[in-house]
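stage 2 :: seqdesign
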């Protein structure tokens, strides 16, 4: 009798059972994680309701002066919901946040600029503000609109500026600086070409993924980033909590 065939059959059966067991384990873990995330979502929703109603006393006192410049990143599909964007800005204005940068990758918010300013009579574009926006407390709200294309354009301008400066140095008998572009050199170039921009203290991300979605990286070196979930689930309590937690953070910038 050939024993190889029963052995192969047994081996296949064990392998099949092992695969089924792994799939069941995966499904079980997936269900546990889904339940855990649902519990967290319900907890956050209830906490947000309590904050909105003023039940939680500690959230009533915000050191809003610490938040000099706020950036809001919105996923481009959600950015089409202008009414929700306006509601968010109205909440911020009532809280006392006066300097805000609005960003989405595709420039949807830029295209909706007129509609947003039409609903916010107290708002002005950053281009009309003469002072450094992070150093003054305006009577109005200052809005900046940024897209992914702005970041690309800024890098092109900065690189071109560095190239031109090196070329001038060569023409005057110097040597072309072939060193790797350093952070201070890039910052200086961005500042000269007018693309540096204020650095936000806090960045709130409204979207499905935990990512800044291409927001200019050189502007968020020391920025606190908080994922807020989809704009569809916009909640006043969650906004207050994010700002409150930021005001309690002690930031070490190094030397």
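stage 2 :: out
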């Amino acid at each position: 009798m050939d024993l190889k065939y029963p052995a192969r059959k047994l081996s296949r059966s064990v392998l099949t059972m092992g695969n089924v067991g792994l799939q069941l384990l995966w499904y079980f873990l997936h269900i546990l994680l889904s339940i855990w995330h649902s519990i967290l979502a319900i907890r956050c929703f209830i906490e947000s309701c309590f904050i909105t109603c003023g039940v939680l006393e500690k959230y009533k006192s915000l050191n809003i002066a610490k938040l000099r410049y706020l950036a809001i990143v919105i996923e481009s599909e959600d950015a089409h919901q202008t009414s929700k964007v306006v509601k968010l800005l109205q909440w911020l204005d009532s809280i006392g946040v006066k300097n805000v940068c609005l960003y989405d990758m595709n420039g949807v918010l830029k295209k909706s600029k007129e509609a947003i300013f039409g609903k916010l009579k107290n708002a002005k574009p950053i281009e009309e503000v003469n002072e450094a926006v992070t150093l003054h407390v305006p009577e109005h709200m200052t809005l900046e609109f940024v897209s992914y294309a702005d970041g690309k354009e800024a890098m092109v301008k900065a690189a071109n500026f560095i190239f031109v400066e090196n070329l001038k140095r060569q023409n005057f008998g110097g040597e072309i600086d072939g060193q790797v572009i350093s952070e201070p050199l890039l910052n200086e170039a961005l500042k000269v070409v007018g693309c540096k921009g204020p650095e936000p203290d806090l960045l709130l991300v409204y979207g499905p993924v935990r990512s800044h979605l291409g927001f200019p990286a050189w502007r968020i070196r020391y920025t606190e980033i908080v994922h807020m979930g989809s704009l569809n689930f916009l909640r006043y309590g969650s906004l207050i909590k994010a700002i409150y937690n930021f005001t309690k953070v002690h930031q070490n910038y190094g030397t």
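stage 3 :: structure notes
- The two ends are 80 Å apart (CA to CA).
- Strands lie at 70-74, 99-104, 123-125, 141-147, 202-206, 224-229.
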